[in-house]
Amino acid sequence: MVPADAVRSKTPIIRNRFLKPSAAADGFKHYMDKKPKIGILGVGMVGGTLKRYLEEKKKFKRGRNLFLYDTDRKKGYQDNINFADVIFISVPTPQNRDGSADLSMLKAVFETINGKKIIIIKSTVPPGTTEFFSKKHPEHKVLFNPEFLTEANAWHNMLNPERQLVGWTRNNQEAAQRVLSLLPQAPLASPSSELNLTATEAEITKYAANLFLTRKVTFANAIFDLASHHGANYENIKLGIGSDPRIGQSHLDVNYHGYRGYGGYCFTKDTNALIAHYKKLGLQHSADLFNQDRIFNEGLLRRQGLTPNDVSLHDKEWIKDKPACRTGRKLK
Ligand SMILES: NC(=O)c1ccc[n+]([C@@H]2O[C@H](COP(=O)([O-])OP(=O)(O)OC[C@H]3O[C@@H](n4cnc5c(N)ncnc54)[C@H](O)[C@@H]3O)[C@@H](O)[C@H]2O)c1
Question: Which domain of life is it from (predicted)?
Answer without folding.
Answer: Bacteria
